[in-house]
Amino acid sequence: MARAAVKAKQAQKAKVQPAPKTRARGRRRHASGGNPNQQLFFVRMRRSARPMYFILAVLFAATFAFLGVGSGSGGLQQLFSNLNIFGSSGTSISKALGEVQKHPTDPRARRDLATAYEAKGDTFLAIQALQAYTTLRPKDAKAWTELAGLQETAAQDFLTQYQNAYANQQLAAPSQSLLPSATSPLGQALGTNPIEQTAATQQNAIVTNLAQQVQAEYTGAVASFQKVAALEPDNANAQFQLAQAAQTSGDRTTAVAAYRRYLKLSPGGSTAAQVRSLIKQLTKK
Q1: Domain 139-179+187-282, CATH
Q2: What is the residue extent of each domain of the chain?
Q3: Closest CA to 137 of 114, 165, 154, 171
Q4: What's the number of CA atoms in the CB half-sphere (13 Å) around residue 255?
Q5: What is the pLDDT of residue 195?
Q6: Region of poorest pLDDT, from 39-48, 120-129, 153-162, 235-244
Q7: 179 — alpha (psi -120 to 50), left (phi > 0) or beta?
Q8: Among 81-90, 123-132, 177-186, which is the least confidently predicted range?
Q9: Which of 131, 130, 122 is nearest to 153 (CA)?
Q10: Can you give the pTM of this predicted structure?
Q11: Could you tell me the CA-to-CA distances from 271 to 24, 154, 235, 250, 276 in Å, in that order?
């Protein structure tokens, strides 16, 4: 009886149990629960990009043909050099110095050395290297222009140092401005502070030296621009640069002459009116 009751109970449960779910038609869900089309998206993207790959390949091949790659002209190297992909910084200072030592009369070695110093921001050594180069290549107007520009930069650096040194000179003996004049009886009686006097003397020597260096660099720039003007007598810009450098250095005669040559070469220039005004100012007595 007990077994019959158990079997009847199991049969009753089987009747009320729901049928197993059938799998829905359509796309299968992704196993990770994400977008089921995630992988298909990248497949479609690669397929749609094939025409673009073809176009880029044709352009790349045409570029190589234009640059002469494979013809011995160094086209690929030129392409990468122009794009500066690898950040090449040119000849190093040590390598350039080695070339100068091996070939002291080679203008190219001096030119490379100057470029290396400029890349490192060493204006003064770059000036020395360019001066050596222009001695070997005196007709290189571009090099003379570059040298003049470096000399003007050096002059400005010295001028900044001069201004700072002059300010320090005033601070070296602060009590002197409060004391009576040294030529007056009271000033002679009080005398001067020996410590301040020593500091002021040292600072005065620094100021004087820097003033001389400023003048020397500006004079050098004027001389370099004169070389450019002589090599390119029809270059109005060279005359203007010469006039500006001469005016800054205090050489009024050279400045006026260069400004007048500039007006002859470019009488209708945009700065002609300003140049005429400068000539009037520089020729005033």
Answers
A1: 1.25.40.10
A2: 90-138, 139-179+187-282
A3: 114
A4: 21
A5: 58
A6: 39-48
A7: beta
A8: 81-90
A9: 122
A10: 0.61
A11: 85, 27, 15, 21, 9
